[in-house]
Amino acid sequence: MEKVKNSSVLSFQTKNKDHHTMNQTAGLIIGAANGIPIQQLGSMSNRHGLVAGATGTGKTVTLQILAEGYSRMGVPVFAADIKGDLSGLAAAITPNPKIEERLRQIPLPDYAPSACPVAFWDIYGQTGHPIRTTVSEMGPLLLTNLLDLNDTQSGVLYACFRIADDQGLLLLDLKDLRAMLTWMSDNARDLRATYGNISSSSIGAIQRQLLVLEEQGGNLFFGEPALQLNDLLHVDFSGRGVISILDATRLVAQSPRIYATFLLWLLSELFEQLPEAGDADRPRLVFFFDEAHLLFSQAPKALAEKIEQVVRLIRSKGVGVFFVTQSPLDIPESVLGQLGMKIQHALRAFTPKDQQAVATVARTFRPNPQLDTASVITALGIGEALVSTLDPQGRPLPVERTLICPPQTRIGPLTDNERQEIIARSPLNGRYEQTLDRNSAYEMLQQRAETAVAQVPEPAPAKSQPRAASRRQGVGEAMIKSAARTIGSQLGRQIIRGILGSIFGGRR
Q1: What's the average model confidence in pLDDT over 412-417?
Q2: CATH fold of 2-132+224-425, please?
Q3: Which tens digit of pLDDT belongs to each residue from 124-140?
Q4: Taking the CB of residue 443, how many other CB atoms lie within 10 A of it?
Q5: How many other CB atoms are found less than 10 A from the CB of residue 143?
Q6: For a disulfide at 213, which of 40, 218, 278, 358, Cβ 3.0-4.6 Å?
Q7: Omega within 30 of 0 (cis) for the link into 392
Q8: Which run of H or E residues covers position 49?
Q9: Whole-model pTM above 0.70?
Q10: How confident is the model over 43-63, as pLDDT tens digits?
Q11: Which H or E run contains 30?
């Protein structure tokens, strides 16, 4: 069955090559200012962007029209669905008076309700294909942020990864990491000369944070099969980019740190694995990061520097990153300065602090002599925004008060039946649903413990040497218990049930 599914995806990708130029357009129309279309050039779309505005001002619909526009250009899209509304991208919109009114205000001769090709993903595996990575792929820097560790604990975690590499132990899931940490604790004296002091208290703190992470769904997120980045880069038979939608409604509510860390990991993996794109007529992938403040609000300095570096360099790989948030001030200046396209929906200014924020936001745009930008920000209606794009030389154009285009896809979520039908038809269906548990650190440390137990000398017959037998049996039990402790509490209990059961006649 897997062979059939892989071949269908291959033909899916091959047929796209025949259609590569059919959907190519000069740019993506965002809306119109005084009846004149405002567009973002495809060649400038890897210069990143920002969609900002207060709750209820139309950010989600703007994200939707950007995603469907890039899809029509043949560009794959990845977006996190915070509210559950983006699933409507998979269905055509039903015409209504509001849409007809907006079309009278914006010249869109090619407008036609149509669905986009969509792939659904879900860390919990309930509303989309399961999406995972391994502990090794995540790495110690991101795990430090995910577990909210201090500097000392972070140093121990870095040592854990180094020791695992030196020992040839794969860290795939959380039980691998837990087993490795406990082995380090029991062998800290021998490891100290090479890897420095390994504090039992620091290991205990990391283990406690792992328990919290497991409760938040980390045990589902870490494991195999891990996400293959190529599965985010598909186009359909007609040449439209597939929009990959991560259901983040539950994730952001319960585990915002997992959400932010996962998306940052995904960006860094794209940067590391994709080849240089050069000057292309459109991006290779567009990545929407909704609730962007979650990425920056608690990031330590080392991670913040990593984020800035990834955002600055990933555009050379043909990836455009769009941050979606309530205020541009949620984004650090070092990152905000790298965002080419800016779409600013209304902000509210009820307090002096709000008014100061509005004035600051207004200064982030290239001025338009015909607009008082600060005043307009607070007067924008729903579906209206201040928009600044880039010219062919990459220079910001003056800001324009813009009516945003109506979407061609449904505003609002799919029904559960509609979603499940799309998942069932997906070429990716069945590729990630069944978990794998390869021979990794957990199993390899268990094998070491079993080998140590097997080397324990058999006790002498009790009749000939009763005292020695009693003493030697005690030593054997101590070695077995020590081996069990070396693997960690969860693995240790399995060893006691298995090994002790077989030696001393207990139940397996």
Answers
A1: 94
A2: Rossmann fold (3.40.50)
A3: 999 999 999 999 999 99
A4: 17
A5: 25
A6: 218
A7: no
A8: strand 49-52
A9: yes
A10: 999 999 999 999 889 999 999
A11: strand 27-33
Give the residue among 232, 267, 263 at the shortest CA–CA distance from 248.
263
**DSSP assignment string, 447-465:** HHHHHHHHTSPPPPPTTT-
Which single residue is written with the structure tokens 């040449």? Answer: 239
Alpha carbons 485 and 179: distance in angstroms, whole number: 10
- Would you state the structure tokens that stand for residue 140, as one six-digit string? 């110690």
Strand order in the sheet with 36-41: 36-41, 27-33, 400-404, 384-388, 341-344, 49-52, 319-325, 285-290, 77-81, 243-247, 118-122, 129-130
Three-state secondary structure along 240-289?
Answer: CECEEEEECHHHHHHCHHHHHHHHHHHHHHHHHHCCCCCCCCCCCEEEEE
Strand bridging mode 285-290 / 319-325: parallel
Scanning 19-91, the segments in alpha helix (DSSP H) are 59-72
Q: String of b and e for 112-126 (b: at least 16 CB within 10 Å)?
A: eeebbbbbbbbbeee
Q: Which two tokens stand for residue 74?
A: 């043949």
Q: Where exactly are the structural domains of the chain?
A: 2-132+224-425, 149-158+165-221, 441-504
Q: Name the one residue in this structure whose structure tokens are 């002096």.
A: 352
Phi, psi (rounded to 5 degrees) for 116: -105, 150
